[in-house]
Amino acid sequence: MDEVFGVTFSGAALACRSQGDGLPIVFLHAGVCDSRMWADQMAAATAEGFRAIAYDRRGYGETTSSDVSFSHLDDLEAVLRALNIHAAILVGCSLGGGLALDFALKHPGRVIGLVLMGTSVAGAPYDLLESEHGLEMAEADAVERGDLDMLNLVHAHEWLDGPRAQNGRVGGDARRLFLDMNAKALKASPLTQEQARPPAYELVDVINAPTLLIVGDQDFNSQIQLHEYLSEEMPNAFAVVLENVAHIPSIERPDLVNPLLVEFLDAVVGTDDDEDEDEQAE
Fold first, then answer.
1. Which SUPFAM superfamilies match (predicted)?
2. pLDDT tens, residue by residue, 56-104
3. 3-state DSSP call for residue 244?
4. Dihedral angle over CA of 90, 33, 243, 260, nearest 10
5. Model confidence at 278, in pLDDT bands (50, 70, 90)?
6. What pLDDT, in 10s, does the model give residues 212-239?
7. Residues sharing a CB contact under 8 Å with residue 112, sequence separation 6 or more, in sequence order
8. What's residue 280's pLDDT?
9. Given this structure, which CATH class describes domain 3-126+189-281?
């Protein structure tokens, strides 16, 4: 059962949830979602004996914030400090994955492992295929007209269905959840003073934490290329491509994501246990 609480920091009340006990896992949501995107994965992690933590970043979900200068990285550090967590496994999707990478670069000794799904990376190149331009144009048109409902539908096609897939490919509860999460983000009061993220693209090769990289083959081509780049550059990365899945695999195909997540978590904990046994033997 969720423990719901708030962390007040630098003009914001960050809406957080936690469940379970054990080694902490912090789930960081995508830029078109909120912490609800991780409900299935949090349940899977707690069933394995971990403590699962998620929160809504500024501009998302139930978090409220004044329009002040802020950094998502500072907010993450504030949440960890409030929970007295020094080190954790970070699980992030899209912008949440980029935040996890930023934290790993700033605090390498505090990251036990990383799970990155369709992750962003500050400073990474972003090139569209010809077949992906139509949706970008539709998005720009909805923004220009101020039509948030249409923009939400375009985002669902881009990020849930996939830019080259048929509109409505993903339906049911997953689509309803996506549209509700993204609608809240689109209608939130603008935050105009976010601090720029330092480039991370050419620094990822120094991240030694064990890392699981996941991408869907229906995601934007640039996301797939970035996934391949990270798998080559990050020294302890294991990469998986999910077939017929787009940018938000946690809600589209939890049946595929959850076993991968649990296997990775067990491997990371097993590695830690093995190292402890080696040290004791010495």
1. alpha/beta-Hydrolases
2. 999 999 999 999 999 999 999 999 999 999 999 999 999 999 999 999 9
3. coil
4. 30
5. very low
6. 999 999 999 999 999 999 999 999 999 9
7. 23, 87, 88, 89, 209, 268, 272
8. 36
9. alpha beta
Residue carrying structure tokens 């083959």:
217
Which residue type does 240 have?
A: V
pLDDT at 282: 35
Higher pLDDT, 2 or 8: 8
C-alpha distance from residue 259 to each of 41, 158, 256, 263, 264 (Å): 9, 26, 6, 6, 8
Report phi then psi at 3, rounded to 5: -100, 115
Tokens encoding 257: 């994501």
Cα diameter, the chain: 68
Q: 3-state class of 149 per DSSP?
A: helix
Mean pLDDT of 178-191: 97
Residue 90: CB partners within 8 Å, gap ≥ 6? 25, 26, 28, 100, 103, 104, 111, 113, 114, 115
Domain range annotation of the chain:
3-126+189-281
Residue 273 has pLDDT above 90, yes or no: no
| 55/57 Cα distance (integer angstroms) | 6
**Nearest alpha carbon to residue 116 among 42, 216, 185:** 216
